[in-house]
């Protein structure tokens, strides 16, 4: 927790859980990415946290932006950043949304199949497209599903169709999985990208760009390598697979940009046991899966949790949220060690919550208000 966040919480008077994001940390993270991969353009993944203050800061610093919807595109344009700094990175787009993005000036689109190429050719003629390929998410705390991307052997066919339909076949993208702890995870995917570059060149089509996606981790309970270690490993792989003819490169940090910049303050609502001989207490907070902590699903993301009583003796606890929904249990398979002196009404601090919290708390499920957000 930064001193700025500590001071903010000391003076806060409102009730209910909140997330507080320190822009100084976001600024430091942007500079770390820009310094560690100096020849790579940073496209912030807006979905991680679209707070206007964060977008304004990153636009001022020179960042570009990966957008998943027209609404996110409009948020970025509101900062004054030009459409040339925007990628419509969602591979699943309504044709009218493609047309609207094109009208707003966006000329860079993601695809992963022929049907998406055809939509873009009709609604955004002449645009640049990059094809997302599937890759192994081994090493990630949250490996991505097969929802996005195609098999690498399909990509040349998709890009060749784009070329035939008058689009610019621009490059390849991939994502190595969220919260990727292996700095070498990009190597295999870059090898696949280089092979596709070669295949396309034999077809007379020169690709230019590799979008290396996100996956850069925030620090939760486990230690993770720093951004410089990822930069060094990625540059080694680029050189290994592309030699001296390095492509243009893009990265899309989201969690790695804002995750460690935010902290949630929550309150203990209830502490109970399920039987007289139960050794594990249930600690219910005023925040749960439906109020911003959706990434605790399957206990994939294990947030650090602090209290004012952490020097006291601790015992295992199940953590759960406040809603009348049985899935609103945060950590039960692997309980958390919390102080035996913890009491109803005590505050708890949940660290590294700057990413994927406010965006997962947009509906007042059960009447609980969406997560309050402050950017300082």
UniProtKB/TrEMBL annotation:
UniProt modified residues of type N6-(pyridoxal phosphate)lysine: 47
Any GO MF annotation of the entry: ornithine decarboxylase activity
Pfam families in alphabetical order: Orn_Arg_deC_N
InterPro entries: Ala_racemase/Decarboxylase_C, De-COase2_N, De-COase2_pyr-phos_BS, Orn/DAP/Arg_de-COase, Orn_de-COase, PLP-binding_barrel
GO annotations of cellular component type: cytoplasm
Enzyme class, UniProt record, top EC level: lyase
The UniProt record lists the keyword NADP: no
Keywords: Lyase, Pyridoxal phosphate
Keyword NADP appears in the UniProt entry: no
Top-level lineage group: Bacteria
Catalytic residues as annotated in Swiss-Prot or TrEMBL: 324 (proton donor)
Pathways involved: Amine and polyamine biosynthesis; putrescine biosynthesis via L-ornithine pathway; putrescine from L-ornithine: step 1/1
Co-factor requirement: pyridoxal 5'-phosphate
Family: Belongs to the Orn/Lys/Arg decarboxylase class-II family.
Protein name: ornithine decarboxylase
Biological classification of the source: Bacteria, Pseudomonadati, Pseudomonadota, Alphaproteobacteria, Hyphomicrobiales
